[in-house]
Design goal:
Blueprint (H helix, E strand, L loop, with lengths): L33 E3 L6 H12 L2 E3 L1 E2 L17 E2 L5 H11 L2 E6 L5 H12 L4 E5 L6 H10 L4 E5 L9 H13 L1
Parallel strand pairs: 1-2, 1-7, 3-4, 5-6, 5-7
Helix pairs in contact: 1-5, 2-3, 4-5
């Protein structure tokens, strides 16, 4: 049975209601092979749930003890525990192991989300930051993925306790963009 949490939407947005970009917008060789994240509530779990829904392999690194703000990260997420309980260690490892990082956020970059962007810069990894307020473009993400040859995509952003609507917004955007 799936663990319910005040931070995790157990019933993601209906995928049927997420409009899909026309096939003509997708490059002929477009294919994300794996989505990774640290498994925190909010954007991280939206990325993992979208991967599961879309049939894309998923994974990533998480802190020792599968630590997250709502308790241990559910086993349905195929994450590997680091030897460290520190969020920053898992953040760095996921940036390092990806071809690029997508940061989805609502307000301003801060905390772990800002740290993720800094690690991407330090490690010379592509990083696309998309504010999920107002109209957002799926084409921007698709173009970035294609031009940077991203096959392993790290998805990061705020945890649910800092933005209660970020999970749903991120899930819808990812599904709509990558379907």
């Amino acid at each position: 049975m799936k663990k319910s949490s005040k931070y995790h939407n157990d019933s993601p947005a209906d995928p049927e209601s997420a409009s899909v970009p026309p096939a003509s917008l997708l490059p002929p060789n477009f294919r994300i092979q794996r989505i990774i994240s640290g498994g925190q509530t909010g954007v991280d779990r939206a990325g993992l749930d979208a991967a599961i829904h879309l049939g894309i392999e998923h994974g990533g690194w998480c802190p020792l003890g599968r630590r997250s703000e709502d308790g241990p990260i559910p086993d349905q997420y195929q994450l590997v525990e680091l030897d460290s309980p520190n969020y920053s260690d898992r953040t760095r490892q996921n940036v390092l192991d990806s071809d690029g990082t997508l940061i989805l956020y609502g307000g301003r970059l801060q905390g772990g989300t800002l740290l993720t962007a800094r690690y991407a810069t330090q490690l010379n990894k592509p990083c696309l930051k998309i504010r999920l307020s107002g109209r957002v473009s799926c084409e921007q993400l698709i173009s970035w993925i294609e031009s940077n040859h991203i096959s392993i995509l790290n998805i990061a952003g705020p945890r649910a306790s800092s933005d209660s609507k970020i999970y749903a917004k991120a899930y819808r955007y990812i599904v709509k963009s990558l379907a």
